[in-house]
């Protein structure tokens, strides 16, 4: 299975789960602890505006964070995921999440305090270059780092165009570390 197959599988899996609200809730619970660890690590504030690049059909990270920050914009470059994600946000009656059909390589990231990138958001270094050129210097960037067994499918830390970062261990199925850095820590292309 190559990288794109893995991405499509995760994406496909979420598209199935989202059809049954109970499954979506169990999916959210599965990730809750890891996302709350990310929230604590990043020191997110209630007035923060967050951009999540690649939310999928079940934007569980944004849903879990929605009562902890001011507003979250979730983007995805897959139209079907965007439509399904809009439905689940309405189902949970969450009114501080906006879902947009956009690509992380070209989105305007300048109005956000925090930017999240999940494992599947690609191409990582092009997304980072876009962030570096447009964000203010204090924007926090959070990224999940794949476990060794998954580095074949998701960009490993050594291939990321970043100079410095802070890290925290988490225990999840596919990732075991989250890192945080600022636009100034991203290398020039
Ligand atoms: C399956 S989701 C995983 C995120 C997870 N649901 C969460 O809340 O943490 C990953 C999504 O990233 C999207 N994606 C990948 N690259 C992207 C890019 N450059 N811009 C926007 N979305 C992207 C894929 O379409 C996929 O739906």
Automatic annotation (TrEMBL):
Pfam families from the UniProt entry: NAS (PF03059)
GO molecular function, a single term: nicotianamine synthase activity
InterPro entries in the cross-refs: Nicotian_synth (IPR004298), SAM-dependent_MTases_sf (IPR029063)
Any single biological process term in GO: nicotianamine biosynthetic process
Organism domain of life: Bacteria
Coiled-coil portions: none
Protein name: Nicotianamine synthase protein
Protein species of origin: Anaerobranca californiensis DSM 14826
């Amino acid at each position: 299975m190559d990288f794109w197959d893995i991405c499509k599988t995760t994406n496909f899996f979420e598209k199935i789960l989202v059809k049954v609200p109970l499954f979506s809730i169990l999916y959210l619970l599965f990730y809750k602890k890891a996302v709350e660890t990310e929230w604590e690590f990043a020191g997110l504030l209630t007035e923060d505006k967050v951009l999540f690049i690649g939310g999928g059909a079940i934007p569980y990270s944004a849903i879990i964070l929605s009562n902890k920050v001011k507003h979250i914009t979730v983007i995805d470059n897959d139209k079907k995921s965007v439509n399904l994600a809009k439905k689940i946000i309405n189902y949970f009656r969450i009114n501080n999440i906006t879902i947009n059909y956009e690509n992380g390589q070209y989105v305007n990231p300048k109005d956000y305090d925090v930017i999240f990138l999940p494992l599947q958001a690609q191409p990582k270094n092009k997304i980072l270059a876009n962030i570096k050129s447009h964000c203010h210097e204090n924007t926090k960037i959070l990224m999940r780092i794949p476990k060794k067994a998954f580095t074949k499918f998701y960009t490993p830390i050594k291939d990321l165009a970043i100079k410095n970062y802070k890290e925290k261990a988490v225990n999840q199925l596919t990732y075991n570390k989250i890192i945080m850095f600022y636009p100034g820590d991203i290398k020039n292309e």
